[in-house]
Amino acid sequence: MSADAVTEDQQTATLLESYTEMHEILMPNHTNNLGRALGGVVLHWMDICAAIAARRFARAQVVTASMDHVDFLGAIDVGDVVNVEAFVFETGQTSMDLKVNVYAERPSEGERRRTASSYFTFVAIGGDQEPTSVPDVVCPTEHQEEMRERALRRRRERREQLAAE
């Protein structure tokens, strides 16, 4: 185990400790010829938000290990405020599973809609550039437990659906 491994007082972390929100305005240089967000730009923002959430949770450097199937649920138009949310909902010895949602907002119209979602896995990296242990995720409130259970259930359902196709 790495010298940077989780210490005795860092054996757990709450889901809320990882919760991260990023905001962007969709500018013309982030759009296709229809004035809508490029998928690659949205994926980039999702990866950055998830990395921040994972680093906060692990208290260590992290690397992206995988990204599940991404569902693009709706367009994001130039000028929309883009909100990316991520949180850790499950952990392994050195890995963390995160739920990432993307929303588009039009504040002038009071509108907010989900536009993309996915699941990411990150691995914590110690000072020796090797995987290092991460805290166990705990959910001390009913709201955090509901967020975790919903993420676990939806990921399981998504995997079952993809396996059936």
TrEMBL record:
UniProtKB keywords: Hydrolase
Region (Disordered): 142-165
Top enzyme category: hydrolase
SUPFAM superfamilies (UniProt xref): Thioesterase/thiol ester dehydrase-isomerase
CDD domains: BFIT_BACH
EC numbers on record: 3.1.2.20
InterPro entries linked to this entry: Cytosol_ACT, HOTDOG_ACOT, HotDog_dom_sf, Thioestr_dom
Record protein name field: Acyl-CoA thioesterase
Species: Halospeciosus flavus
